[in-house]
Amino acid sequence: MDHVAIMNRQAGLIDHILSGQKTIETRWYQNRITPYGRIAMGDIIYFKNSGGLIRAKALVSQVSQYAQLTIDKCQQIIDQYGAPGLIDIQNSRAASWAAGKNYAILIWLKDPVAIIPFNIDKRGFGSSAAWLTLPNIDTIKKS
Questions:
Q1: How many C-beta atoms lie closer than 10 Å to residue 91's C-beta?
Q2: How far is the C-alpha of 27 from the C-alpha of 98, rounded, in Å?
Q3: Residue 88 pLDDT
Q4: Cβ atoms of residues 16 and 143 within 8 Å
């Protein structure tokens, strides 16, 4: 399965992934939405900044999913994985940030590489979708 992760441009997260500073991508949701339950070891994630081109990819080496989160459970996850080289969350504000989140997905990244940038057609996924899951990236590549 292929995935497209749409990242926050200001945070520079794609550069952190490519440099090895960030080895776990996380998604925290109020509702159970993709990629929850739809991502597995061996899948490929393509990364793009919001409004930009896809410019990197990585292999999924491990996935952990959490449901029925409480603020305490969110804090435990952040305390365990919120360190340099893992996830980018400041522990000091984690509890207030996590309020209202019911689901979390932690995705370990392996072999991140920069690729020749390309554009995609997101039609059918919703204009505000921050994660796309599809059988093959070629089906949404723009020529």
A1: 11
A2: 11
A3: 63
A4: no
| Domains of the chain, start order | 2-118 (2.30.130.30)
Specify whether the backbone of 33 is left (phi greater than 0), alpha (psi in -120 to 50) or beta: beta
86 burial class (0-12, 13-18, 19+ CB within 10 angstroms)? middle
Please tell me the pTM assigned to this model. Answer: 0.92
Cα–Cα distance list, 110 to 23, 62, 106 (Å): 7, 9, 13
CB neighbour list of residue 55: distance below 8 Å, 6 or more residues apart: 14, 47, 48, 49, 114, 115, 117
pLDDT, tens only, 85-128: 677 665 556 666 677 889 999 999 999 999 999 999 998 888 78
How far apart CA 63 and CA 118 sit, in angstroms, is 27
